[in-house]
Amino acid sequence: MNVKILNSCVGCGACAIINPNVFEIHGNKAIVNPNKIDESDDLCIDAAISCPVNAIEICEY
Ligand code: SF4
After folding, report:
1. Domain holding 15: CATH number?
2. How confident is the model at residue 61 (pLDDT cuts 50, 70, 90)?
3. Total domains present in the chain
4. Is the pTM of this model over 0.90?
5. DSSP one-letter string for 1-60
């Protein structure tokens, strides 16, 4: 699985609350820690569903 943050991120912090191992807020945008994705992929999907501006893109490869 690959997780990407789109420019439309507004830095609300929801993804970092749902899955703090993968998502972190830097400045006013979320960033992704790719090393932690595989061990918490369900929470990455939960974060993507919860993002208010659909800024989390998930690719299944
Ligand atoms: S939930 Fe969406 S808008 Fe909020 S910080 Fe995460 S990626 Fe950005």
Report:
1. 3.30.70.20
2. confident
3. 1
4. yes
5. -EEEE-TT-----HHHHH-TTTEEEETTEEEE-GGGSGGGHHHHHHHHHH-TT--EEEE-
Supply the residue whose CA is at minimum distance from atom 2 of ligand 1.
Answer: 51
User: Domain of 23?
Assistant: 2-59
**Per residue in 18-48, pLDDT tens?**
999 999 999 999 999 999 999 999 999 999 9
Name the residue of 5, 12, 21, 26 whose CB sits within 8 Å of the most ligand 1 atoms, as the mutation to test its pocket.
12
